[in-house]
Design brief:
It contains 3 helices and 10 strands; from the N terminus they run H-E-E-E-E-E-H-E-E-E-E-E-H. The longest helix has 24 residues. The two termini are about 15 Å apart. Helices cover about 25% and strands about 40% of the residues. The strands form 3 sheets. The chain has a 4-stranded antiparallel sheet.
């Protein structure tokens, strides 16, 4: 009876404490930069995808950041950021669950339909926890940058994706946890 009770307590402790310990100690961040170097169609869009390390899938995402680099193909003529939209899309789930707006026509108001102008943009956008970690089954991410109006043009130079979160437990860690439980059980039986 004591053996069954101690085994039950050990399993409950592992079940309760392991996810908490894992979330506190295994937070990881991965990032990847993709050089694009394409003039956006005027109007039109261009999509660029990155695949993060396929061996690291996230159980829970704590932060997503995108660094977007745009420039004017002609330095003497600025691009109109008010014409540019950018959207980050993750490969699966519903549209709402798998997409987040990165940039949406900077500076556009009722009295200013063109918005802000610039010869370059190099900015990091923090999307927080816009992506539900339980949806993640692959590591393909796509950034689409669109020029929404005819007029000034923009060049999509590069982008960097940074994802932080708690990775899914690997098969090896689950086996190790099982072995540790068995060793604890065997040790308790000897006492």
């Amino acid at each position: 009876m004591k053996h069954a009770l101690s085994m039950t307590v050990a399993l409950l402790m592992v079940g309760v404490l392991a996810p908490q310990a894992r979330s506190q100690s295994l937070l990881q961040t991965v990032s990847q930069t993709n050089s694009v170097g394409v003039n956006l169609p005027d109007p039109g869009q261009y999509s660029s995808s990155v695949t993060l390390n396929p061996s690291l899938l996230f159980d829970q995402i704590t932060q997503v950041r995108v660094n977007l680099v745009l420039s004017s193909p002609n330095p003497s003529q600025p691009m109109w950021l008010g014409q540019i939209k950018a959207n980050l899309l993750y490969g699966i789930g519903t549209e709402v669950q798998r997409s987040a707006v990165v940039l949406d026509r900077l500076g556009v108001t009722g009295s200013d339909p063109f918005g802000s102008s610039a010869t370059s943009l190099n900015q990091t956008f923090d999307l927080g926890t816009a992506f539900n970690g339980s949806l993640l089954a692959s590591n393909l991410w796509t950034l689409t940058v669109a020029d929404m109006q005819t007029g000034a043009t923009a060049r999509f130079d590069s982008w960097t994706l940074e994802v932080s979160g708690v990775p899914e437990p690997s098969s090896a860690s689950l086996v190790a946890l099982g072995l540790a439980t068995l060793l604890l059980r065997k040790r308790r039986c000897r006492i």
